[in-house]
Design a protein that fits this description.
Layout (H helix, E strand, L loop, with lengths): L1 E2 L5 E5 L7 H8 L9 H9 L9 E3 L1 E6 L2 E6 L2 E3 L10 H10 L6 E4 L12 E2 L5 H18 L4 E4 L4 H9 L3 E8 L1 E2 L6 H5 L4 H16 L2 E7 L7 H15 L10 H10 L4 E8 L10 E8 L2 E9 L6 H16 L4 E3 L14 E10 L2 H27 L13
Parallel strand pairs: 7-9, 15-16
Antiparallel strand pairs: 1-2, 2-4, 3-6, 4-5, 5-8, 6-7, 9-17, 10-17, 11-16, 12-13, 13-14, 14-15
Length: about 400
């Protein structure tokens, strides 16, 4: 531990297992996102999914008052840019042409999880502004003494964004496709928001399950048989393999298996069964979501065979129906896919924050980001002008 003030010490931790769960959780539980809770991050590391060997070396910054953890920043030293879903490969190419080493870089996010919510974890009874300045200064010092080219915080919490920009971090705007619950009483209420043509399309896609002889079940927490967790890995693996190099297969089988004992209270599986099946352990396809409070997050899906409209039902329609029934306000279905907007997911802005310690990189990249951000704002507006909602209905906010 390094002394930084009379009442604080800082420490860089290379395994979250070094931090007691009971110390970490009071900082993570108040967040709306589940992706910075101790069990989730520990599972990523202990399963071999987020490790130095995989190019994700844990390098978590912690701040202590005596023996009490008062602040933490989940951070990783990255030897590549895979698994982030904020594509900065052009910055790495520019760095190489300039003779600047882009990797390793310091990254703040929950690995492989393009879901909004990153911020420093700070105890509510502490001086947040003081700790934020302390932590940013320590990150700058760490990067300087270790010749780290840059620091990046991805999918940051909107309320936290302004604080970091005041500390000199530059924003890069992106968007995801996010569903918002407009106080719907049922899925039929939700359908009424669409124009007539798209309403018919969604009804047809929903009916496709019965035509294929399938029944959908939503299973949560202790309802989920243990066998579904390794099966979810097989579905995830199959889906990733279909896309070859772009398949983004980062998680190990052990990661999914460990979820049963450590994290099933947050898991929501939407599983498709043959109508004749009486065994919850053998679905033909399944999606994997997480929930916390009034939020639902779609993560992965897969199936044994190609089945018409199965993807739309287990990844979008059935989770939306479950979300309405359980008073979920926001459903983030996961990365990518303009096809989401046709099913009621408007483009919703999010931001990553960046600091480049090379003056040559900063002089080129920061003006470029300003131009890109203006273009991104126009793209979001254009996408949301083309949503398939009834002209009589109020459009979702972008």
């Amino acid at each position: 531990m390094d002394k930084t003030a009379s009442h604080y010490t800082v420490s860089w931790i290379h395994q979250i297992a070094e931090i007691p769960k009971e110390s970490w959780e009071p900082l993570a539980q108040p967040l709306t996102t589940p992706f910075f809770e101790w069990d989730w991050l520990h599972n990523l590391e202990s399963s071999g999914s987020a490790t130095g060997k995989a190019g994700w070396m844990p390098c978590h910054l912690t701040v202590w008052r005596d023996r009490t953890l008062v602040a933490a920043a989940p951070l990783y030293l990255k030897g590549h840019s895979y698994g982030e879903f904020v594509f900065d490969h052009q910055f790495a190419d520019l760095s190489e042409r300039l003779g600047v080493s882009y990797y390793p870089k310091l990254l703040g996010m929950s690995p492989f999880t393009p879901a909004e919510g990153y911020r420093f974890l700070i105890a509510p009874d502490e001086d947040e502004d003081q700790l934020l300045r302390l932590m940013v200064a320590e990150i700058d010092h760490f990067c300087d003494r270790n010749q780290i080219s840059s620091c990046h915080f991805l999918y940051v919490q909107p309320e936290w964004q302004a604080r970091l920009q005041q500390c000199g971090f530059s924003p890069w705007r992106h968007h995801n496709y996010i569903w918002h619950n407009d106080q719907y009483g049922s899925f039929d209420d939700y359908l009424k928001a669409f124009n007539a043509n798209q309403r018919r399309n969604i009804k047809r896609e929903r009916k496709a399950m019965a035509k294929s002889g399938l029944t959908l079940k939503t299973l949560t927490g202790d309802e989920i048989p243990r066998a579904l967790f390794p099966l979810m890995y097989r579905f995830y693996e199959n889906t990733c393999d279909k896309f070859g190099w772009w398949g983004s297969k980062y998680l190990t089988k052990r990661f999914f298996e460990q979820l049963y004992s450590t994290y099933r209270h947050r898991v929501v599986f939407v599983a498709a069964y043959p109508e004749s099946s009486h065994d919850d352990r053998h679905p033909v396809g399944m999606s994997f979501c997480l929930t916390k409070g009034d939020r639902l997050y779609g993560r992965y899906w897969g199936s044994h065979n190609e089945i018409d409209c199965l993807h739309f039902n287990v990844c979008y329609y059935q989770p939306i129906e479950w979300a309405i029934d359980h008073n979920i306000k926001v459903f983030d279905p996961g990365a990518g896919g303009r096809h989401k907007k046709r099913r009621g997911f408007p483009a919703t802005p999010n931001v990553s924050l960046h600091r480049f310690y090379s003056s040559r990189l900063s002089k080129i990249i920061l003006p470029y980001l300003q131009q890109v951000n203006e273009m991104e704002e126009r793209e979001v507006a254009a996408i949301n002008e083309d949503l398939p909602f009834s002209r009589q209905e109020s459009r979702p906010n972008s």
